[in-house]
Write a structure and sequence with these properties.
Layout: H1 2-5, H2 10-22, H3 26-39, H4 44-58, E1 66-74, H5 75-78, E2 92-98, E3 101-106, E4 111-116, E5 119-124, E6 128-133, E7 138-143, E8 147-153, E9 158-165, E10 172-177, E11 180-185, E12 190-195, E13 201-205, E14 215-221, E15 224-229, E16 234-239, E17 246-250, E18 254-259, E19 265-269, E20 273-279, E21 285-292, E22 296-302, E23 305-310, E24 315-323, E25 329-332, E26 335-344, E27 348-356, H6 362-367, E28 371-376, E29 379-387, E30 394-398, E31 406-407, E32 411-413, H7 420-430, E33 436-440, H8 447-460, E34 463-467, H9 474-483, E35 487-488, E36 493-494, E37 505-511, H10 522-525, E38 527-533, E39 536-542, H11 546-549
Helix pairs in contact: 2-3, 3-4, 8-9
Length: 550
């Protein structure tokens, strides 16, 4: 309204640029900043803001070079189980992980183990060969005899939701969407595809090359299925519904495969090594790392962490994704809810600001001792970073035909992509700081349509998750990986299904500069913050003035 009344209100363009940045309209923000800098070309802070936005905008779905660092620990210690709890497996075959939960299939003991902090429970199941979480509370178990059973964790008991049969002798299962799954069949020498939940056959696949096909582990990333062929020392990347059917990678005796949190492919071999494959600029897959894991038998992933379980089920190796760029990763972030508080007479006042940090390296951020600096009119002061608790609200955006499938307190329904901004804005105004937005993959949209939503998530530290009611696009998967989201394959969702995301919300306490007063221009007293977490550096700005806060 102010700019409509007075188009020459130069400070108004700067303030509107910050508002547009925080709501994900980066094109509009850059336009306002350039207009502002035409009149105030010496405003170095505004130039830095523009530069940071251009960096974020030009890398909307970039690949983050990733290394892996971790530790080995007894399974009982990792899950903080009581001394009386007996752990271990007789014939560990495979498993899955989601959030703080790990599920292990013990084929010789005829049981499935579900482990989480302070708790271990067992499910009797004849000859389980694989387990796959569809959400936090739902998972399917595949048996050697072809039985496929979906369970729901209701807290005190596991309830069977549905069951059916696939080919006998099946070894591993992966979902391409909530209605399509793939099963490896080493005895049948094929990958079988089924509709779900009715389990009608949709066809099968086997490669034209090589000796007898022996598919073992399989893992889906959107429409791309990674398949380990142990007999032929290969891993196939099969594209579901695409013109290029598959490519193959040479790996010695591959057993398990899994997609890493930033799009890497991890392959566990029988020879005791974990191979990490990454795509280079020419779209060629290269082995970028090989990690010795001599006792590992089972390979799992939970958000940005990789779990390797020993053959006896008693030890766990945890690998955390860390930035692979040694020069560091610089990201922009949104700051909101500023307020002042008096600490004591020695430290004086602070400005308290809420912030959420978007990154695929969530565990890495929490493992670092964050260092905060603030700049008021070229005067630098320190600050403190505290992790915020209890901010785990979720906004779910679903298509109308799926409305009945979700039961939760915080959600909205849209009929087209253009309404997403309205829905997100309404929920954000009511509950600023929610942890994730879950987008139904059935919503018809192109990459440009989703770009503003992606930018909103990056700036405000919100994870963009996908409800895979149909096979998610490669772009949606890239967005998910860049913001640390999840893929949910449950046919229906409730609040209990959406847990498992590690919070990325923090509170910054910025020490108050008593000697600085307002000059009347935001450019002279803009509050700039720099938060460093190891090799990740965040930049943020707030248009607040010390004397106004007083």
């Amino acid at each position: 309204m102010s700019l409509s009344a007075d188009p020459y209100n130069i400070d108004g363009y700067l303030l509107r640029a910050l508002i547009r940045q925080n709501k994900g309209d980066l094109n509009g923000s850059m336009t306002d900043l350039r207009s502002y800098l035409e009149v105030r070309p010496r405003d170095h802070t505004a130039k830095k803001i523009l530069s940071a936005i251009e960096e974020v905008y030009s890398n909307d779905s970039r690949y983050n070079p990733t290394d892996y660092a971790g530790y080995k620990q007894p399974l009982k210690l990792f899950f903080e189980l009581s001394p009386r709890t007996s752990v271990g497996t007789i014939g560990l075959s495979d498993g899955s992980s989601f959030g703080s939960k790990v599920g292990l299939a013990d084929s010789l003991a005829d049981q499935v183990q579900i482990l989480e902090p302070g708790r271990m429970r067992n499910i009797a199941f004849s000859g389980p060969s694989d387990l796959l979480f569809l959400s936090y509370s739902r998972f399917v178990v595949l048996g050697k005899d072809g039985a496929l059973v979906e369970f729901e964790d209701q807290g005190e008991e596991f309830v069977t939701i549905r069951s059916g049969d696939v080919r006998s002798g099946s070894d591993s299962v992966a979902f391409l969407s909530s209605s399509v799954l793939a099963v490896s069949s080493p005895l049948g020498r094929k990958i079988d595809f089924y509709s779900y939940p009715d389990l009608n056959s949709l066809g099968s696949w086997s490669p034209e090359e090589g000796d007898l096909f022996e598919p073992r582990g399989i893992a889906a990333r959107g429409g791309t299925l990674a398949i380990s062929d142990r007999r032929n020392d290969r891993v196939y990347l099969l594209s579901w519904g695409k013109e290029v059917p598959y490519i193959s990678l040479e790996v010695s005796t591959p057993r398990s495969v899994i997609w890493g949190p930033t799009g890497d492919l991890l392959v566990l071999s029988d020879n005791g090594f974990l191979s990490v494959f990454s795509m280079d600029m020419s779209k060629e897959w290269l082995e970028v790392d090989r990690i010795a894991v001599p006792e590992a038998l089972c390979l799992l992933k939970s958000q940005d962490r990789i779990f390797l379980i020993s053959s006896d089920g008693r030890d766990i190796t945890v690998l955390e994704a860390v930035p692979g760029k040694k020069e560091g990763l610089i990201l922009a972030t949104g700051l909101f809810g500023p307020k002042t508080d008096t600490i004591n007479e020695d430290t004086g006042q602070v400005v308290e600001v809420s912030v959420s940090l978007s990154s695929p390296f969530t565990s890495y951020i929490h493992s670092q001792r964050g260092v905060l600096s603030s700049v008021w009119q070229d005067t630098m002061k320190g600050g403190r970073i505290f992790e915020a608790k209890g901010r785990d609200l979720t906004a779910v955006i679903v298509a109308p035909e799926n409305r009945y499938k979700f039961n939760g307190d915080l959600w909205d329904s849209v009929s087209e992509i253009g309404e997403l901004e309205r829905s997100v804005r309404k929920i954000w105004e009511q509950n600023p700081g929610f942890s994730q937005i879950v987008v139904d993959s059935e919503i018809q949209a192109n990459e440009d349509d989703f770009l503003w939503l992606f930018n909103f998530c990056k700036i405000n530290g919100v994870s963009l998750s996908v409800w895979g009611t149909k096979t998610p696009s490669d772009f949606l998967i890239s967005v998910l990986e860049n913001t640390g989201g999840n893929v949910y394959y449950s046919e229906s969702l409730s609040d209990g299904d959406l847990k498992g995301l590690k919070t990325k919300s923090f509170v910054f306490n910025i020490f108050y500069p008593e000697t600085i007063s307002s000059s009347g221009y935001p450019s002279k007293n803009m509050l700039s913050t720099i938060a460093d977490f190891g090799m990740i550096s965040y930049r943020g700005w707030l248009p607040i003035w010390p004397d106004m806060l007083r």
